[in-house]
């Protein structure tokens, strides 16, 4: 069995590396995206102000007036501690608790300074002003925040199209029909495809990670082993998604449409380019169904917050279980012709 898997593994690798344009695109595309967003989202392009609110804003009084301020996005938080972390990281400009008239601000946040002035102005005619609480924390640049998502996105494209499109092409040109005449089983063939694409994705994205770190010097506070495990499970999960799509389709046009149907929602709803803080609850809930969300969130928690494997275990568990389910489905419905 292992000899057959190894033979298919080597054959697929040779085919991939002979396609110079595909190999170059896998490396060049994420580098271009990172540089564009590094300079497009800098201090000259400030985001809309974000204010975290612990509790309900009253319907009357100074707090109600502050709640109607234009160009301010008010985000609900269940507790103060969760909001404080966001303020420390400059992900929220100010945290306000109307019930106690307390607010938290980061002294190094320019946006926080502006929002604080708006809050104080809203209480200018009140008998008691809100109490200031200072928090400290170094700012997360947009490039620090977006790089985990860009690497995850590159894994997604390479996994879905590198597996799904290739298998459909094999079926269309009769290659699978020839392989079916050999002792190779469907599971052996799929395992060989997974291993072939898996090591290519890991190596290519490792090169991208190291190269971009030399140019951009982004954050990495966690364990490299933990980050590797996240990307490893993410690769396997997304490869299995591609296998399910390609298990029975024989038309490249149909496969391209279905793969885009999978990939585009993940690219925009998995929090790659922008935070889903303040988004509609249904969008946030839907995002949790997407594997790319768990890959991106786990990678960010490790790289930015220094999270351990235990702290991202929920993401790893979801990716691991869903990978096994997808692989079983792909092998069950797979057809050679």
Secondary-structure element sequence? HHEHEHEEHEHHHHHHHH
Radius of gyration: 24 Å
Work out the helix count.
13
Number of folding domains?
2
List the quaternary state of the chains: single chain
- Structural category is alpha/beta
Mean pLDDT over the full residue set: 80
Q: Uncertain regions: pLDDT < 50 for 5+ in a row?
A: 40-47
Biggest pleated-sheet summary: 5 strands, mixed
Instruction: Tell me the distance between the termini.
Output: 22 Å
Shape: elongated
Number of strands: 5
Q: Approximately what portion of the residues adopt beta-strand conformation?
A: 5-15%
Element layout with pairings:
Elements: H1 2-18, H2 20-40, E1 49-54, H3 62-67, E2 72-77, H4 80-88, E3 94-97, E4 102-106, H5 110-122, E5 131-135, H6 142-172, H7 175-180, H8 186-216, H9 224-246, H10 252-269, H11 281-287, H12 291-305, H13 313-333
Parallel strand pairs: 1-2, 1-3, 4-5
Antiparallel strand pairs: 3-4
């Amino acid at each position: 069995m292992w000899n057959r898997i190894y033979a298919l593994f080597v054959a697929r690798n040779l085919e991939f590396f002979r396609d110079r344009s595909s190999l170059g695109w896998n490396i060049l595309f994420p580098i271009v995206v990172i540089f564009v967003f590094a300079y497009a989202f800098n201090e000259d392009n400030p985001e809309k102000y974000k204010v975290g609110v612990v509790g309900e804003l009253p319907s009357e009084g100074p707090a109600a007036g502050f709640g109607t301020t234009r160009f301010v996005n008010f985000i609900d938080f269940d507790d103060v501690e969760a909001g404080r972390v966001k303020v420390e990281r400059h992900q929220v400009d100010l945290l306000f608790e109307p019930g106690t008239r307390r607010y938290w601000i980061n002294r190094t946040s320019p946006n926080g300074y502006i929002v604080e002035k708006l809050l104080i102005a809203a209480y200018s005619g009140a008998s008691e002003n809100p109490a200031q609480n200072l928090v400290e924390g170094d700012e997360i640049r947009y490039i620090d925040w977006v790089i985990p998502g860009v690497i995850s996105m590159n894994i997604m494209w390479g996994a879905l199209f590198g597996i799904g499109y290739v298998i459909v092409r094999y079926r269309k040109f009769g290659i699978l029909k020839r392989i079916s005449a050999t002792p190779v089983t469907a599971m052996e063939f799929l395992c060989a495809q997974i291993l072939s694409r898996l090591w290519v994705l890991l190596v290519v994205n490792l090169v991208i990670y190291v190269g971009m770190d030399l140019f951009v010097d982004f954050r990495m506070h966690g364990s490299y082993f933990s980050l590797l495990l996240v990307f490893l499970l993410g690769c396997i999960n997304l490869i299995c998604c591609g296998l399910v799509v390609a298990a029975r389709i024989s038309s490249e046009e149909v496969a391209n449409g279905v793969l885009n149907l999978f990939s585009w929602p993940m690219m925009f709803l998995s929090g790659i380019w922008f935070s889903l803080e303040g988004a509609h609850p249904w969008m946030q809930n839907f995002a949790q169904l997407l594997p790319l969300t768990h890959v991106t969130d786990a990678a960010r928690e490790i790289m930015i917050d220094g999270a351990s494997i235990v702290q991202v275990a929920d993401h790893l568990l979801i990716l691991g279980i869903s990978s096994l389910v997808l692989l079983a489905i792909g092998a069950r419905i797979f057809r050679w012709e």
